Automatic annotation (TrEMBL):
Organism encoding this protein: Caloramator australicus RC3
Molecular-function GO terms, alphabetical: 4 iron, 4 sulfur cluster binding; 5'-3' DNA helicase activity; ATP binding; DNA binding; hydrolase activity, acting on acid anhydrides, in phosphorus-containing anhydrides; metal ion binding
Biological process per Gene Ontology, one example term: DNA repair
N-terminal signal peptide: none
Entry similarity comment: Belongs to the helicase family. DinG subfamily.
Keywords associated with the record: 4Fe-4S, ATP-binding, DNA damage, DNA repair, DNA-binding, Helicase, Hydrolase, Iron, Iron-sulfur, Isomerase, Metal-binding, Nucleotide-binding
Record-given protein name: DinG family ATP-dependent helicase CPE1197
Residues that span the membrane, as ranges: none
Domain of life: Bacteria
InterPro entries attached to this UniProt entry: ATP-dep_Helicase_C, DinG/Rad3-like, Helic_SF1/SF2_ATP-bd_DinG/Rad3, Helicase-like_DEXD_c2, P-loop_NTPase, PDDEXK-like_dom_sf, RAD3-like_helicase_DEAD, XPD_DNA_FeS
Keyword Iron-sulfur in record: yes
Domain Helicase ATP-binding: 179-433
Keyword Disulfide bond listed: no
Amino acid sequence: MEKLIRISVRELVEFILRRGDIETGLLATVDRAQEGARIHRMIQKNYGKNDQAEVYVKHLIKNGKYSIEISGRIDGLRFGEIYTLEEIKTTTKKIEDIDVNFMHLAQARCYAYMFLKENNLERIKVRLIYVNTDSLESRAFEYDYTINDLKEFFDELVEGYIKFLEKSLEHINERNETIKEIKFPYPAFRESQRKLSVAVYKTIMEGKKLFLEAPTGTGKTMGTLFPALKTLLGPTSKIFYLTAKTVGKASAEDAIKLLQENGLIIKSITLTSKEKICPNELKCNPMECQFAKGHYDRINDALLHSLSMDFFDKGRIEELSRRYNVCPFEFSLDLSMFCDVIICDYNYIFDITSSLKRYSFESKNDYVYLIDEAHNLVDRARDMFSITLSYNEFYKVKQKFKSFRKLNLALGRVIKYFNGLRESIEMDKVAMTIEDEFLNGINKCEEVVEEFVLKNLIKDEELLNLYFDIKRFKKIVELYDENYRTLFLREEDILVKLLCINPSKILKGIMDKAQAAILFSATFTPLSYYMDLLGGDGSYKLKLSSPFSKENICVMLNPYISTRLNDRENTYERVVDGIKSLTYKKGNYLVFFPSYLYLNEILKRFPQDNVDLIVQRNDMTEKEKEDFLKRFSEDSEKTLVAFAVLGGLFGEGIDLPGEKLIGVCIVGVGLPQINFERNVLKEYFDERIGKGFEYAYIYPGFNRVLQAVGRLIRAENDRGVALLFDDRFLKRPYNNLIPDLWKPLKIVKGNEDVINTLKRFWKEKSDC
């Protein structure tokens, strides 16, 4: 069957003819679509009865193997002896400074050729009209073309596109043949892995969502990727493997490489944030960066030459970007358009201000989202769909630009509102609406700041940051509904925060536009909580049991030591003794605390004469984190005890297999710190379903506990011990959340009990 490829004139021109430097900041990103539409209507209102506005044109190119449908909309056609085609563009430049933009003219020439071809005409005039958005003054540039003039230009443009298209189609044909033949890359499916893979395939083919709890060892990465790749034969065109952790990206990359080694032809790319891949400290302008200067002159050659490769990780992208002298971040985004699997962070799909603009996530598409460690998506989504504005950011900009009256008046209006809050609220406060006074002030600020920057070509960082915060605030306002609250927070600063409490509606809306979404985690407990908050209405669900033997793990509970806030001072010494008893056997241990404050209190009392003690800090760099993990060696001479915080850097997303970790201690039930914002969540869920404390504190806290103990057994032959402190683990709802692998919990009364239990476990598997 002949394949039909659809592309718009604008997409074609912007891809094939792009030239020049990368420009960033406000000047490059302002969206003036609404203003442009108003000016289009203003000009089109003066058309005569035979003139036409918004004329749709399309052109079909066939070659037997595929067809290309190129389409677009002409702003205006003036009737006459010779038609005049009008292309209208808005600008903030002074009329006398305007010159013809090559890309604008190229777009108009394509429309002109397509119109002449459709109507069997020989000649046309093209008028490019630039209108200043403030003064409404205009300047026109007029050209005469014959169909032969335009055909040569149009054919050359299409020829450039076909080079990429044929490489892409050739790859897809080869890919599909290998997908048909590829076998599962291991001798057999693991226990429950086949069930997992069948559920994933069925869900994708039916266009649904699946919530999948698959414990460590189930083989989630290959179990989800393998069946998803099979659906590239239909109905899927692209797979997005979404993860919040570096280790998740590495697992997906390893799975892809293994399949490629087994004969699968597949193009895969891992997207890295601009902050982590930029070689020039984010100085993204042609004056300071050799990669930004002339990037678009070189990018298509770089792409064309790179498409002979199939695997693009961070290292390869960096190497290719140096070879072709292009920006690695922008290069990776362009490369992703030609890849079958895109491994990236959640925000590339879900963040309303930083999602991949090259893709049509806002309309129905045929993509599949494989969402790894999806328990993290609850808090990440809340962050992505929330926004905070502060008094200080407005005040600093106002002081810096105090000589500009119009800007000062707009900023002053918002500052006046903040000052009113300072006088009227004595403590943090919550509301269910956004006051019109504040919204109106923000709207005026956006308009004035945008006009000020564009007129004066200002590139001040604080001013631009404020502008982008305002733009984000306005986008969040569009989402604001009964699932939001407005927080007024009194700190050293005065803050207004639009807090997304329940992101399920927004997430569901995004996922429903895809072909399918598979959300999976080792710790989706309770599943109903995650389905409720992640838009799981009408979804499939599957809960798998752990493939590991209970004989390989011993989980002890000391319910006689309270870690409640009011009891801690009286139990510090007993916690220290408990940790010492857990570590009686030489090896490596992780001890998790509910806070740095608690950690430091135990640290003061913990004897370090017979152990190596390392401690997590809240400001660790990537290098320090790597060094911390390197200390977990299988051949350490002394016992290693590492103090860490639940829910922190080392609570999940790290692999310490074999003898690198033999014991974990959990101090407390993992409850998040009680604060104003968490209590707002509690009140919301109390009103909605009567489970405020569970949703705000218990369930997210217990997930930290599950993740921390989950560091212990990473492979089939791993063995280890865990010690929990707190009587609440025996009470509802905590006892209902305990996984089967931990049961039955071994209740220990003191240090002697712990040591005796451990002696039995380490000596003889069957005793524990």
